[in-house]
Structure formats: C-alpha cells, structure tokens
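Something for you to look into today, if you have time. I want to see for myself how the chain folds. Leave the record below and I will have a look.
***
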Amino acid sequence: MPRVRRVPQRQCVACGTVRAKRDLVRIVRTPSGEVRVDPTGKLSGRGAYVCPEAGCVERALGQGRLAGALERPIADDVARQIREAAARPPAPRPPVVRRIPLGRSKNSV
C-alpha cells in the first residue's frame, strides 16, 4: 500500500481557521529581530501565519495579533509588504504524480 503524505496544517493568527500551510502567508521574525514576509516558508525564526484575505490581514495588523504572535511591533513598510503578499495569487503547484504498483501474478512471465 502506498504511503499517504500528510499535508501540513497551520492556524491563521487573525481568524483562527486551520488551513494547509501552503494556502497561508507566513510572516517571520528572524533571529536578528527583522520582521519580513517568508514566501518559501523555510526561513529560520519565529513564524506566524495569516489567511491571504484582506479582512484577515487587516485584523491581524490592526488588532495587534500578528505583533503579539511575533513578539515584535510591525513596521509600516512590513505591513505594506504583508498586504501585497496577501493580494498576490498563489504560485502554481507542481502536478501530483501517483505511481500505481503493478501486481505480478504467479502465472505472468
């Protein structure tokens, strides 16, 4: 039986909705203290996730939920970058290739 991979799930800091990690925008506080958008999802540091909808982004920035999650205030230029990243359409995903094992019977050569 082929092994089924689990899709990583994350929770939006604004609305609390749990979605696939790739469907959310990751904001990270790097070890040097800089806050920035992480399009790859692999930068080291403390990360927080926000839904790409404008309402969630505004709630996260306006109510201080994002700043609380990152333990750092969010600068205006970073807030602008977050809004732009949320408005961008997501990158296309590569196609999923599923291999089906061919069973061999005792009568086949």
